């Protein structure tokens, strides 16, 4: 029986961790071979990209950022999508009756052949249009993906809702606003904009280790009345907001001394994953019923999975893990979303 193939995208330095956690949880995984700096092809006996997406969200697995079913490959040195158009056409029509498709292209790793994203998109879109498809850059239910790697171009097709990310290869790109206080804001902004978790747009929030105030600013902009906890200074523009209160103390002292309750607690402090996890357990008395938390676990680059296993075990004493992912804007860390248990 022919093996199924899925294209999996992850951070360039997370391939081995992604492979290990996938083989822990995908029972029919056979092989996973790297094809680009941020991409690999997973071969399974029967699991599809949709199945993999479900496992990633349910377990959770933290390193895959994007998945799609592989339907063709071509040599980017001397051919293009037109050379595999027949197989691409039949694979799309087998899974999807509508002529509307989005087309996503990206490059994974440095290539010695000439690659221009705009020209490649226009060329591929024309091939699909010649086959009767209505092609857009975004907005369709299904996406045709073309990932250009150093030695091959991989063509995928999948429902966007089952692909982990609506961005090509999970490469979320955010513009820097003039009011940005720190680059750490990108992590929280990506989580809010890309993953559609039910945080709401009002209520009270608590930000541990807030200085200089990047996450506090994002929370306040979203509509949360935010308490920023940090012995250090906040950016003056953040501090003068009427929906921000600065408590100049440590997280530990605040937990011991406060009797307030919050809808959302966030923690982007630089500490070991187990200490961060225990801090979130200690914060349970400060959460309202069914309150949520966001924490970044700073794993570094060694013994990453064992650190995450230990941290998740601690967190599950008081929370359900709603989401865990190494986001595009995470560096040697994982963003985790928690909901307090009853």
UniProtKB/TrEMBL annotation:
Residues 181-287 form the Ribosomal RNA methyltransferase FtsJ domain. SUPFAM superfamilies: S-adenosyl-L-methionine-dependent methyltransferases. InterPro entries: RNA_MeTrfase_FtsJ_dom, SAM-dependent_MTases_sf. One of its GO terms (biological process) is methylation. One of its GO terms (molecular function) is methyltransferase activity. It comes from the Bacteria. Keywords: Methyltransferase, Transferase. Transmembrane segments: none annotated. This is 23S rRNA (Cytidine2498-2'-O)-methyltransferase. It comes from Glycomyces artemisiae.
């Amino acid at each position: 029986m022919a093996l199924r193939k899925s294209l999996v995208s992850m951070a360039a330095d997370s391939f081995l961790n992604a492979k290990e956690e996938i083989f822990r949880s995908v029972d029919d995984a056979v092989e996973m071979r790297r094809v680009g700096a941020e991409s690999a092809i997973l071969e399974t006996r029967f699991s599809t990209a949709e199945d993999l997406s479900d496992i990633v969200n349910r377990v959770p697995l933290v390193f895959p950022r994007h998945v799609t079913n592989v339907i063709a490959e071509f040599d980017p040195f001397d051919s293009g999508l037109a050379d595999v158009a027949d197989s691409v056409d039949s694979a799309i029509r087998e899974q999807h009756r509508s002529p509307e498709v989005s087309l996503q292209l990206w490059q994974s790793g440095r290539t010695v052949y000439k690659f221009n994203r705009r020209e490649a998109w226009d060329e591929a879109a024309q091939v699909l249009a010649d086959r009767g498809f209505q092609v857009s850059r975004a907005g369709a239910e299904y996406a045709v993906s073309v990932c250009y790697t150093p030695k091959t171009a991989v063509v995928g097709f999948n429902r966007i809702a089952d692909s982990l990310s609506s961005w090509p290869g999970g490469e979320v790109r955010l513009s820097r606003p003039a009011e940005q206080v720190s680059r750490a804001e990108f992590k929280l902004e990506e989580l809010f904009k890309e993953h559609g978790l039910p945080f709401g747009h009002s209520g009270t929030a608590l930000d541990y280790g807030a200085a200089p105030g990047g996450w506090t600013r994002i929370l306040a902009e979203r509509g949360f009345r935010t308490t920023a906890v940090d012995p250090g200074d906040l950016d003056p523009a953040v501090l003068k907001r009427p929906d921000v209160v600065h408590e100049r103390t440590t997280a530990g002292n605040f937990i011991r001394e406060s009797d307030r309750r919050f809808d959302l607690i966030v923690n982007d402090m630089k500490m070991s994953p187990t200490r961060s996890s225990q801090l979130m357990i200690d914060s349970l008395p400060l959460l309202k019923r069914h309150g949520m938390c966001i924490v970044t676990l700073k794993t570094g680059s060694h013994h990453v999975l064992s650190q995450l296993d230990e941290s998740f075990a601690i967190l599950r004493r008081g929370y359900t893990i709603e989401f865990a992912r190494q986001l595009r804007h995470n560096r040697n860390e994982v963003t985790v979303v928690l909901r307090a248990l009853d």
